[in-house]
């Protein structure tokens, strides 16, 4: 698929989503500060199905405003539900230790979805990872009649509102109809891509000038289906993400794996906060459960330290 078509698809998708926003001031902020990057552009380049459109923003003001908007909307959608207690337990805030980072505070499992109440709320904690992924994919796609398999454009459904919030973690907000809003990172495209790992995901579209940037290195990697590691703030996530690409027929040489290992070796993973931060980017509730266990032990025992035998036994138990 060529540049012109990809740019048109993203532009139409972006316009459709922006029109769903009810706050005019927020609309203007979003129009001036949105970046679409990640896996959707590589998928379109090779004519694969787009799983979702990853949305980032250039500044923290837009991130904070959009997060508050969807948290408020989610609460309003479920305020009449007598079983709904979890929506009262989460809010948007600036991290006390890092004022530049915006989070959504969600108690218990660390995730919340439109069908995750009471007994179902534990669904993401104790069910196989594949089932959780299937839920999120269904929420993104909606699988409505008349759906365009390529760009996710769908006709409105009388029963459900388009682009409604359906799933949240402290990093991201998943909307129906293939929109994923990332609140963990913000900044100009080059700054955002410092948090990325593999070069083929660094192409991007910018809302303020309707421009699509395709990097030569990213295109070469995509054509060869060869993973090239450019470094990341979250190398553990990169190591785990490799499984997904290898399953799809990608290749990675030993040198790229060594680069990931070298970055991991620089991390102090005995520090629970650092370990939690490194694992949060991996969207699996099993890792949330692991962190919860470690925190409980730390709170019960002031001198608690993570040891390899203890961590290994805990991982085997959870997984």
Structurally, the number of domains stands at: 2
The helix fraction, in percent, is 40-55%
Strand fraction equals 5-15%
Low-confidence spans: pLDDT under 50, at least 5 residues? 116-133, 135-158
What topology does this entry show?
Layout: H1 3-19, H2 24-33, E1 34-37, H3 40-45, E2 53-57, H4 60-78, E3 91-94, E4 102-105, E5 111-113, H5 123-126, H6 129-141, E6 165-169, E7 172-175, E8 179-186, H7 189-192, E9 204-206, E10 211-213, H8 216-224, H9 235-247, H10 254-265, H11 272-280, H12 285-300, H13 308-318
Parallel strand pairs: 2-8
Antiparallel strand pairs: 1-2, 1-9, 3-4, 5-6, 6-7, 7-8, 9-10
Helix pairs in contact: 9-10, 11-12
Report on this model:
This protein is of the alpha+beta class and 319 residues long. The chain has 13 helices and 10 strands. It has 2 domains: 3-220, no CATH class; 225-318, no CATH class. β3 (91-94) and β4 (102-105) form a beta hairpin. Mean pLDDT is 80; it is low at 116-133 and 135-158. The chain is globular and about 55 Å long. Helices cover 45% and strands 13% of the residues. The chain has an 8-stranded mixed β-sheet, sandwiched between helices. α9 runs antiparallel to α10 and α11 packs antiparallel against α12 (285-300).
């Amino acid at each position: 698929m060529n540049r012109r078509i990809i740019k048109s698809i993203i532009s139409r998708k972006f316009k459709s989503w922006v029109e769903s926003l009810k706050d005019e001031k927020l609309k203007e902020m979003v129009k001036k500060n949105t970046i679409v990057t990640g896996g959707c552009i590589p998928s379109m380049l090779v004519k694969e199905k787009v799983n979702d459109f990853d949305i980032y923003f250039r500044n923290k003001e837009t991130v904070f405003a959009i997060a508050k908007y969807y948290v408020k909307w989610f609460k309003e959608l479920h305020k009449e539900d007598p079983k709904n207690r979890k929506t009262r337990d989460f809010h948007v805030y600036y991290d006390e230790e890092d004022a530049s980072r915006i989070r959504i505070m969600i108690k218990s499992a660390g995730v919340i979805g439109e069908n995750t109440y009471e007994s179902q709320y534990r669904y993401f904690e104790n069910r196989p990872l594949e089932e959780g992924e299937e839920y999120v994919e269904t929420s993104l796609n909606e699988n409505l009649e008349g759906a365009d398999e390529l760009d996710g454009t769908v006709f409105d459904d009388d029963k459900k509102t388009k682009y409604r919030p359906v799933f949240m973690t402290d990093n991201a907000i998943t909307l129906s109809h293939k929109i994923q809003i990332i609140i963990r990172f913000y900044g100009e495209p080059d700054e955002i891509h410092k948090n990325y790992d593999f070069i083929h995901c660094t192409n991007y579209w910018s809302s303020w000038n309707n421009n699509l940037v395709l990097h030569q290195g990213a295109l070469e990697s995509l054509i060869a289906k060869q993973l090239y590691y450019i470094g990341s703030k979250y190398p553990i996530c990169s190591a785990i993400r490799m499984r997904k690409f290898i399953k799809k027929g990608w290749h990675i040489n030993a040198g790229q794996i060594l680069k990931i290992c070298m970055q991991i070796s620089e991390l102090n993973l005995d520090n629970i906060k650092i370990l939690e931060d490194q694992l949060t980017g991996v969207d699996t509730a099993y890792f949330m459960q692991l962190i919860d266990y470690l925190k409980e032990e730390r709170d019960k025992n002031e001198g608690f330290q993570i040891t390899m035998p203890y961590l290994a036994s805990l991982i085997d138990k959870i997984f």
